[in-house]
Amino acid sequence: MLNVGDVMTKKPATVGHNATLKQALELMERIGCRHLPVMSTDGHLIGILSDRDCRLALNSPLVMRERWQDEDTVHHTTIGSIMSPAPVVIEADAAACEAARLMLTNNISALPVMRGETLIGIVTTSDILVAFMSLEKKLTQLTESTVRPNPPVS
After folding, report:
1. Residue 6 to residues 92, 97, 123, 154: CA-CA distances in angstroms?
2. Of 38, 49, 110, 126, which residue is the least packed, with the fewest Cβ within 10 Å?
3. Continuous segment of H or E residues that includes residue 109
4. Contact (Cβ atoms closer than 8 angstroms) between residue 20 and residue 74
5. Domain ranges of the chain
6. At 97, is the pLDDT very low, low, confident or very high (cuts 50, 70, 90)?
7. Is the pLDDT of residue 84 over 90?
8. Nearest-CA neighbor of 82 among 63, 95, 103?
9. Is 50 exposed, middle or buried (0-12, 13-18, 19+ CB in 10 A)?
10. Which stretches within the chain are classed as H helix?
11. What is the mean pLDDT of residues 72-96?
């Protein structure tokens, strides 16, 4: 069985709830991600910020630095005011298919991965798809190596 811990991104980048939208957008752009767990000042997970949350805050279909239409919003909007609070979370030892089920059921594309009260990773739909492709490749290789042509009949 494939677990969440096998497919998650370990030690994900995070953002504080008092950070500005500009800071979060720059971080997301720099590391190439679409989700940031949001942390309180005392280091507890309190939300998640998605690129969708950013687009809604900017009232824009795109989130690209050169297209920020409202500089005032980017500089003065705090993450705490636009994040999705109390995110659905999962444990690292949960089955990866349970993560996929939770994402589908809740119409979300990322789950913070927790060990007790500690954020240890994040799993996204992309992580699940990569794992699926890897398993499919391994299964195909296994099937091809075990299927032998019948010997010729004399």
Report:
1. 8, 12, 10, 50
2. 126
3. none
4. yes
5. 4-146
6. very high
7. yes
8. 63
9. buried
10. 4-7, 21-31, 51-58, 71-76, 79-82, 96-106, 125-146
11. 93
